[in-house]
């Protein structure tokens, strides 16, 4: 598995979308490095949380468009927190939760499928159920992280019951949409190294 992840990571980009995804990935790394010197530590920590997703999408060999979408979405999600857009733009929180949970559910679906956790049944319902379940689980974990941050790090994190439930519903819907798409479209490149 590690060898396949490394093979996908070192594969040179071939299409414009792959080059663009790699450029966005490099910008994300640079952004985190710069933030170390110009932003508070909490903002740097938030931005750095995007890095595993932008790297994993490349290492898994996601299709170029999905790879790019994943990179942009997680960077926008982290940046929206740093720029305080969740408080200033009504409804932005729900849009980002749906989109970000959706792309992360796609990543989870590929990981679970490749690692054999999810049996290859060939049924079109399987990606729908697995992606939605993964998205709801990721939403729950994220809300726990928000609560922990609010409770033990800073009270500037916005946490209410309605916000938590709304975020989880939006995330679950985003994951459901990805599951439906994944039941019809391949999420990975055809030439990737299989895990």
TrEMBL record:
Origin species: Microbacterium mcarthurae
Keyword hit for Transmembrane: yes
InterPro entries: YjdF-like
Keyword annotations: Membrane, Transmembrane, Transmembrane helix
Protein name: Membrane protein DUF2238
Keyword Membrane carried by entry: yes
Superkingdom: Bacteria
Record field: transmembrane: 28-54, 66-83, 95-114, 126-145, 165-182
């Amino acid at each position: 598995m590690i060898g396949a992840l490394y093979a996908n990571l070192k594969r040179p980009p071939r299409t414009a979308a792959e080059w663009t995804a790699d450029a966005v990935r490099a910008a994300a790394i640079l952004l985190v490095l710069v933030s170390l010197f110009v932003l508070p530590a909490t903002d740097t920590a938030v931005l750095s949380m995007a890095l595993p997703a932008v790297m994993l999408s490349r290492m898994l060999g996601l299709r170029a468009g999905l790879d790019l979408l994943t990179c942009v979405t997680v960077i926008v999600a982290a940046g929206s927190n740093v720029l305080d857009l969740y408080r200033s733009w009504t409804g932005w929180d729900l849009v980002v939760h749906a989109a970000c949970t959706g792309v992360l559910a796609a990543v989870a679906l590929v990981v679970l499928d490749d690692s054999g956790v999810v049996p290859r049944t060939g049924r079109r319902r399987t990606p729908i159920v697995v992606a939605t379940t993964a998205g709801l689980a990721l939403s729950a974990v994220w809300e726990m992280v928000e609560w922990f941050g609010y409770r033990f790090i800073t009270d500037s994190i916005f946490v209410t019951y309605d916000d938590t439930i709304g975020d989880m519903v939006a995330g679950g819907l985003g994951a459901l949409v990805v599951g439906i798409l994944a039941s019809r479209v391949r999420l990975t490149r055809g030439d990737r190294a299989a895990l």
